[in-house]
Structure formats: C-alpha cells, structure tokens
Prior knowledge:
The protein has helices at residues 21-30, 42-45, 48-51, 72-82, 91-121, 128-150, 162-172, 184-195, 197-210, and strands spanning 3-8, 36-40, 61-64, 67-70. By secondary structure, it is an alpha+beta fold.
Amino acid sequence: MSIVITAFERSPDGGQVLARDTRVRWALEEVGRPYAVRLLSFTAMKQPAHLRLHPFGQIPTFEEGGLVLFETGAIVLHLAQNRPGLLPDEANARDRAIAWMFAALNTVEPPILDLAVAKIQEGDRPWAQERLPLVADRIRQRLTQLAERLDGEEWLDGGFSAGDLMMVSVLLRLRPSGLLAEYPSLAAYVARGEARPAYRRAFAAQWAVNAGPPKAG
Ligand code: GTB
C-alpha cells in the first residue's frame, strides 16, 4: 500500500526544517518506506477535505490504505512499530525509546514552542522583553537536564531510536535562537542526527519544495 503525507505547499521558514513534516519524512526514510507528498496551501488546510484527515487543519497527515493519522508522534510511532529500524527489539528498551519520544514532545518541546510564540506572536507586547528571558531559562533548564542525561553518549539510550529522531527534531528548532550552541554536547547530538543518511534524504526532499524565491502562482 502506498503512503501519502501532507506538507506545506510553501513553508513559512523557507525550508529550514522547522515544519513538522520533516520528522515524518525522516522516519519514513529510516524505515525505508517510499512515500508521496500532497502539498497544501494554508487555505486548503482549513477546507473540509483536509479537516476530515486532520481535525485541527494542520500538517502533516499520514494516509496508508484505510489508515489516516495526524500528530507527528502518532505517525512516527506507527512507522517505528511496524518496520524495523527505529525501535529496539528488547521490550524494556523499546518502551524506554517510546518514553523518550514522549519526553521530546511533552517535556522538551513545549518551552521551545513558547519561545517561538513569545517572539513571533507576542514580540510587540509591552511585556514581551520581560517574558523572553523567563522562557529562555525554562528551555535552558531542560537542556541542562538533557545534556546531563546524555553524558557524552552518542544517543539517549543505546542505539539510535525513534526517541532520538524526535528529540533531535525538537532541538533543531532551537538552533536559530542560539540556545542550542550554549550546549556543545547537545549541538553535537543534533549534528549526529543530521548526519544520518535518512535525515539528509528527508531534508533534501523538503528543501526541494521550499527553497528559493516564492514560486509564481
Ligand atoms: N502536534 C501537531 C503534530 O505534532 O503533528 C502539531 C502540528 C503543527 O503544528 N502543524 C503546523 C501547522 O500545520 C506545521 S508544523 N500549522 C498551520 C496551522 O496550524 O494553521 C509547525 C511549524 C510551522 C511553521 C514553522 N516555520 O515556518 O517556522 C515552524 C513550525
């Protein structure tokens, strides 16, 4: 059965991998599944046809046969559980890798998203300059804890897993802020993720859609 995912017709970040389809593309590449991409405008994302796939009118979605999924965590977990390559065979190690996926999405990513909101949506509010350092410090707290746990290891828990895929994807969003560079061991961890051939293929595929000046029409 063929797989179809959705992505931005034109990502607002110009292809700097901040949009979440990249994590799904990366997981697909890691498990060796070919896929097609349906590109959507912001208008199309809010139309009934897409809302039937994604109740919140967002990207990415995943379709395969009769299965429709939204939420990158659910999509990556589905791929990881159904093909070798992203989860260890041993049951406890498998559950720990899944715990790292949740940690990336539920514990590390929220303050990172807060920073984006504080800068982009709230940057012109009178209290923004007071709030920004508070949000940055909440991120630093998580990065300090994560760096302590990584403790010079290559990956979070043994071999590369879906937990690392999700954590690296989340941390990548921090690079433009300069916060990631404050933690050389985490910057190196992210670089290891980016060096994986599967990641490079995923990046190239989304870059081919988004890079360059806006397309006419
Ligand atoms: N929890 C969901 C998941 O993990 O799948 C969140 C999905 C989500 O936030 N999708 C975003 C979206 O569709 C795109 S990725 N937004 C449009 C909307 O809500 O109307 C988030 C994103 C988008 C763009 C940038 N950027 O360009 O900098 C960064 C991140």
